[in-house]
Amino acid sequence: MVDTQNPIIEFKDAAVKRSHRVIWSHGNFSIPRGSVTAIVGTNGTGKTTMLAVELGILPLSQGTVRILDKPAGKANARIGYVPQNYTSAGESNITVFDFVMLGISANRWGFIPTTRRERDAVRHTLEFVQLTEQAQLRLNELSGGQRQRAAIAQALVNNPELLILDEPLANLDVASQNSVIELLARLNKEFGMTIQMVAHDLNVLLPVLTGAVYLLDGHPHYADMDNVLDSDLLTHLYGTKVEVITTPQGDMFVTHNSLIEPTTRIEHDTHSVDEAAHWHTPSSVSSIHSSSSVSLTDTNRVQNEESEGHHDF
Ligand SMILES: Nc1ncnc2c1ncn2[C@@H]1O[C@H](COP(=O)(O)OP(=O)(O)OP(=O)(O)O)[C@@H](O)[C@H]1O
Ligand SMILES: [Mg+2]
């Protein structure tokens, strides 16, 4: 249930620099509790940077970011984080069970034996992500989709209120993408978990997304899906002709297919700020995208803390 009165993430005039270069600025938006949002923008626009800011890993050069009613970095114990390309590098020789246990024990100093309660939490989480049978396999013996579910399990094992994922669908085939999306949908619907993920392909996510943060012209904005699904906005955002198609049945999908309407390629961010002024005004978070059935297109194809509101999935 999306609670628009109760933001889980709040950006106020936020700006960030890397190597003295402003990556994005004037971030003024709130993300509601209970939402499922995508962070979208072309490569290098600062999506991963945004997650680093939210986790307090990277300081702002201006403004504030509050998350779970605390300054960024102060509520990480209530946040599950799945980094970009997490399981493709390193740690491949450890068992799935031990890998998920790291979500509980990684920040401990020295050797402290795990408790039965912690082992039960790992088993329970593995069951939820449907990896019970693979618990004793090594990570490098899993398929890409299974590895991504193991990474999600590690982030979930502490019952976070907010789950943040950086490109969780990258390099997965359609079936594996769908199994990850189904998992995220269950976490949101059954346990009220708020989910934020960096994504490139909106289509596969349309059935679950309630909104998106889009990085346009070096400024991040948040809008609900009804406002994001705008052909002109997405065309400017992706720098290539994008159409939002609604079928007679009411299904919607986004297409990058230049055959639908031949166009010249649009260079990213060539429009003036005046031209795009209506995209840079704070959006009204009003209705929530309610499309329950969305067509796919193949055209282009953090730590243990007792706190209220924890979900026991
Ligand atoms: N450690 C770093 N030091 C300096 N600059 C960096 C660092 N990491 C990233 N950048 C720069 O910050 C900008 C944003 O990078 P970021 O990784 O946030 O982009 P992204 O939107 O996540 O891209 P992608 O879609 O490729 O993952 C890029 O221009 C990048 O070169
Ligand atoms: Mg990135």
UniProtKB/TrEMBL annotation:
Which organism is this protein's natural source? Alloscardovia venturai
A single Gene Ontology MF term assigned here is:
ATP binding
Q: Where is the ABC transporter domain?
A: 9-242
**Low complexity: compositionally biased ranges:** 283-295
Pfam family of the protein (one): ABC_tran
> Entry's Gene3D superfamilies?
P-loop containing nucleotide triphosphate hydrolases
Entries under InterPro entries matching the protein: AAA+_ATPase, ABC_transporter-like_ATP-bd, ABC_transporter-like_CS, Metal_Ion_Import_ABC, P-loop_NTPase
**What lineage does UniProt assign to this protein's organism?**
Bacteria, Bacillati, Actinomycetota, Actinomycetes, Bifidobacteriales
Q: Where is the composition biased (Basic and acidic residues)?
A: 303-313
Ranges where the record places region Disordered: 281-313
Key words of the record: ATP-binding, Nucleotide-binding, Transport
Protein known as: Metal ABC transporter ATP-binding protein
